[in-house]
Every structure is written in C-alpha cells, then in structure tokens.
C-alpha cells in the first residue's frame, strides 16, 4: 500500500490480463536474469496475498502467462523477519529486480521502508549467486544448495539493527510494520 501511495505501483483488478512478469506462488518457473527484457518492456506484478491464506486466494482468476516463483530468500520485513520464503510484496519486487540485473530499481523501493536496507544485506550472497546463473536450471541448483544449507548464506551478514518487536509488544502503524501492498504493476 505504501508503494502504491507513493506512485511506484498501481493495482490490477482480478481477472485483468497482465502481459508482464507476475510473481506468484503458483508460478512454474523461477524468475531469472533471462527475464530482464520482459520486465523492462512489460513490467512486473506481484500477487498480494496472506501466506496463511494461500488456499483461499483465487489464483485461477488471475490472467497472465509469465508467472514466476522467487528462489529461496529470507524476509527482513517487520512482520516475517527471518522467515524464509515469506517476503512482503516490496521484498518480492526488490528481489526480482536484483535478479534481472536492476538492483538500482529495487534499492529505490526498499529505501521507502525502515527495514528495507536489511533485505539486500541479508540476502546479498544468495541474490548475487542467482544473478550469476545462466539458466533456470542453474537457478534451481543454487536454490537447492541454499535450502539444504550446502551453501551458507549468512556467513557475511552482520545485522545493523535490532530485531523487530514481537507480536506481544505494542503495535505500530501499517507503514512501520511494512504491511503488504495490493496486486501491483
């Protein structure tokens, strides 16, 4: 919602066809550096849904042919801090932009969040490895090595901030919590 308010993204209606890359949990291929031209010419969208309610999300009503998954990455937003594969929409955008070679654009989005700088810091080794892949098969191999622990992604990470408050701590505003944004382009 914050990125939408700032004019970086716009919502898509359910059922509306989208010709760009769509980051979705039902994608069959992983986003890769080969998606660079598609993203620059047609854009990128994310499916905004709660990780706890994936079964209730009407994926069949979403129209597009370039559905992609993200590889293994760790969230740094205040809601899912430290959880693998549970990124906010802003983190998903930034990850995809980094992988296709446009880290500069992802930086612009992440700077809008207090926790934003941590995402690239924590995931730098993984994102660098994914960006160097030549094929989707290479991406899957590297992804599997990070998931299994064969490659340690945190060897160089040194957090520069305190952990977010627990759920029992006092609540803060949606902007401070890095709430998820709507379906966006």
From TrEMBL:
Organism: Didymodactylos carnosus
Protein's recorded name: 16S/18S rRNA aminocarboxypropyltransferase Tsr3 C-terminal domain-containing protein
Top-level lineage group: Eukaryota
MF terms (GO), sorted A to Z: rRNA small subunit aminocarboxypropyltransferase activity
Chain ranges of the 16S/18S rRNA aminocarboxypropyltransferase Tsr3 C-terminal domain: 21-146
InterPro entries assigned: Tsr3-like, Tsr3_C
Species classification: Eukaryota, Metazoa, Spiralia, Gnathifera, Rotifera
Sorted UniProt keywords: Cytoplasm, Ribosome biogenesis, rRNA processing, S-adenosyl-L-methionine, Transferase
UniProt key word Cytoplasm: yes
GO biological-process terms attached to the record: maturation of SSU-rRNA
